[in-house]
């Protein structure tokens, strides 16, 4: 299972990378805006800064929604660094763009996926990654994890090479359930990754070990 961090914050990306468990980064226009990044050259420079931190797989999302615009923008994003994965929305022209990038050997991440039907289309087009949004489905009383399960099952039926990248992850149980289901990748905020570390018995056990060690040393 691959771990991507879902942020455009350089300090958080560095922190996750320094743990030695990070496989990639996902961003979206909202996450870039949250970091105050705007304007074409600033956006590109920020993507380059992210690529300089991690080893590979940095999703950079197109803003265009028409085929020609997505192709032009995606090619420019891909030129920033070999680590870039072009993120394309799940719309009709997006599917055409994914097919085009597949034929050109440019990796894609199909985003804003909320149904199994959409997942089938993206796989048929040759998406490298598929991003179904768990939390946003949960928010409207649909079962986001059930969708991950359905897609993993369907892709398994046909041997689709598209990797299921579970997105919109809000808490550690989302991540753990994705691991049980067999999602290929999870992308989540830093607090979800570091949340996996926490257990009260680890904390109390460590405190006890250190106290016993100090007591023995003082004798
Ligand atoms: C990542 O690729 C998605 O854009 C992101 O996970 C969406 O998360 P959100 O629903 O918390 O905004």
UniProtKB/TrEMBL annotation:
- What are the alphabetically sorted keywords of the record? Cytoplasm, Pentose shunt, Schiff base, Transferase
InterPro entries named among the record's database cross-references: Aldolase_TIM (IPR013785), TAL/FSA (IPR001585), Transaldolase_3B (IPR022999), Transaldolase_3B/F6P_aldolase (IPR004731), Transaldolase_AS (IPR018225), TSA/FSA_arc/bac (IPR033919)
Which family does the record assign? Answer: Belongs to the transaldolase family. Type 3B subfamily.
Tell me the lineage of the source organism.
Answer: Bacteria, Pseudomonadati, Bacteroidota, Cytophagia, Cytophagales
Q: In which pathway does it act?
A: Carbohydrate degradation; pentose phosphate pathway; D-glyceraldehyde 3-phosphate and beta-D-fructose 6-phosphate from D-ribose 5-phosphate and D-xylulose 5-phosphate (non-oxidative stage): step 2/3
The protein's name is: Probable transaldolase
Active-site residues annotated for this sequence: 87 (schiff-base intermediate with substrate)
According to its UniProt record, which reaction does this protein catalyse? D-sedoheptulose 7-phosphate + D-glyceraldehyde 3-phosphate = D-erythrose 4-phosphate + beta-D-fructose 6-phosphate
Species assigned in the record: Algoriphagus confluentis
Q: What does this protein do?
A: Transaldolase is important for the balance of metabolites in the pentose-phosphate pathway.
**EC identifiers of the protein:** 2.2.1.2
Highest taxon listed in the record's lineage: Bacteria
HAMAP family per the UniProt record, alphabetical = Transaldolase_3b
Query: What gene, per UniProt, encodes this protein?
Result: fsa
Q: Where in the cell is it found?
A: Cytoplasm
